[in-house]
Amino acid sequence: MRMNTHTxxxxxxxxxxxxxxxxxxxxxxxxxxxxxxxxxxxxxxxNAALSDDxxxxxxxxxxxxxxxxxxxxxxxxxxxSHRLRLxxxxxxxxxxxxxxxxxxxxRLFELVDLCQLPGASPDQKLAAERTIIQRLPTTPLxxxxxxxxxxxxGVVAELLKEGEPQLFNACLGNPRLHxxxxxxxxxxxxxxxxxxxxxxxxxxxxMRPNLRQAILKHPRTPDIWYLLWLPQLQLHLLKxxxxxxxxxxxxxxxxxxxxxxxxx
Length: 264
What we know:
Blueprint: H1 2-23, H2 26-32, H3 38-44, H4 52-58, H5 66-76, H6 82-90, H7 96-102, H8 108-115, H9 122-135, H10 141-150, H11 153-160, H12 165-172, H13 179-186, H14 193-201, H15 209-217, H16 223-229, H17 235-244, H18 249-261
Helix pairs in contact: 8-9, 10-11, 10-12, 11-12, 12-14, 13-15, 17-18
């Protein structure tokens, strides 16, 4: 019997708490949204005084469940503001489906920030990256250059493929750019004498053996890089390069001259 009395007491306290939450004014809500009881937070969602200001603060919490975040979205779905969309995408518990439905409404550099947000989940970052890449065909060059400097590895690798010299140089300076993306570009038909030389001159990339080999094997590589690099090339690599350059008479001549200097 005492157990039933105790239970009734707890229920009465909960009802009183929930009723207070429903009728709390805007100032009081700033305190109440910090409550760890997520059932209570669901009650607060029904409070007419609850504004986007409260919800943005609430969504900064990292202990929210995916179910609660879905309810926040449903509660504001018809009048969802931009700042609330942004707050929803930044919470790591937001579901992938909800993220993908919101990302098209975000601005380009908000997506960039999401890619680099420390608390964002891998799925959030990947979805933001894909959305950026989808927008690249209609993105102005100035924004692309900024993206090249600030973007994630996947975005920069995509921009690199365009081969536009000014954009290309900005990509090469991005610390997130992987060597593999540069190598694939150097092996592609998109590489030009100018972009190849940009890699060959770049402080970060010019000493990478795999990139040097890719540069020396590309048919559009300017002769200057043969003249500068062939004397430093190991003999077995020089012979491999000769075998790969049979269809390029000018390059073959430069290689043969180097072999002759070595008495080969």
